[in-house]
Amino acid sequence: MANDKRVYQVWKGSNIFLCNGRIVFGPDARSLIVSVLLILVPSVIFCAFVAQNLLHKFPSYNAGYGILVVTIIFTIYVLVLLLFTSARDPGIIPRNSHPPEEEFCYESASAEGGGRPTPSLQFPRIKEVLVNGVPVKVKYCETCMLYRPPRCSHCSICNNCVDKFDHHCPWVGQCIGMRNYRFFFMFISSATLLCIFVFAMSALHMKFLVDDHQSVLKAMKEAPASVVLMAYCFIALWFVGGLTGFHLYLISTNQTTYENFRYRADHRRNAFDRGCVNNFLEVFCTKIKPSMNKFRAFVQEEPPRVTTRSTPEMAEHSRRDKVEEDLEIGDEILKLSQRHDYYKTEDIKRRASDGFPRESTESDYKMGTEMQDYPSRPESGRLGSFGTSPHILAFNDIVSDSRRA
């Protein structure tokens, strides 16, 4: 039966959804505002104070306008790539409602302090799969209740398992994974080129001023915006430029940032390396997989799960309930048996009072006790004593089994 709520409204991760689930942000999406300002503000300053002064500095009249147009288009392009990186599903793997039951196995574990081993329910936390002939370990995620595919990891910030998890970038406010890594690399590489372009044009503007005034100090006083932009772009290049170079190395070797930092010291063979050319083609020329989550779909109520395999806890509760029920039945049978013995005794006394007087001796008492303990077949339509009833014998077996357990 369909629910009136959608998937994004009951999402268990830490994501932020906009436009009725069409846009997916990370929990730290506010940092995206800082990143936008770090790109937009320098570009506006450049267009207002540097590119405007370069409009008529070239022999060709349109060359100065070309610098202004390129700066505006390049800035918009970088901002769009930033939005594509942070506002989409990075490759979130849907959670399971229940753990995979077929993976449960029963193993015997010795009880503390000695004694008989008790069965316990064990769940394998690590499994091995073969990737291109190389064994790769996959781990079970307690939060998402699934075995993570190779190259998948759980992001503690977004609280999701992400396919081909690279890292969680606070500057874009989103995880970087299978579905947005291409846009992330294009964003940082384009931001690097934008920094180089702004730095070069600001330096060109300073050159023109130095040629006019024959003094560097006078040129710096006349165009402080160019000086500030050159310093800003120089610092930014160390960050985005170094990040671009590092990811070029990762792409050429088909690694992720998580794998490089986690397994670098192990010197293990990379099972995903297909050669430098094929690795670049895999990142930039393959079709991006569709999202595995339908955030705008209505929540479907799952039918109650029927477990065909009982756990030791369930078996213990069932056994305890069975013993208590058998004890109650045994008490009722015992009362009926005692009542029957009482009527039988009264009947003997009544017969003795009718003309067959006899005194009960100690030997008769012992013989009567032995007759009660001897398992005889009850008469049809009459209930035997406690020791002779087949129901009581069955009950004794049940109680003995429960005590041994």
TrEMBL record:
The chain crosses the membrane at residues 32-51, 63-85, 183-205, 225-251. Its EC number is 2.3.1.225. One of its GO terms (molecular function) is protein-cysteine S-palmitoyltransferase activity. Its main location: membrane. It is an enzyme of class 2 (transferase). Keywords: Acyltransferase, Membrane, Transferase, Transmembrane, Transmembrane helix. It comes from the Eukaryota. Residues 353-367 have a biased composition (Basic and acidic residues). PANTHER family: S-ACYLTRANSFERASE, ZINC FINGER DHHC DOMAIN CONTAINING PROTEIN. Belongs to the DHHC palmitoyltransferase family. This is S-acyltransferase. It comes from Saponaria officinalis.
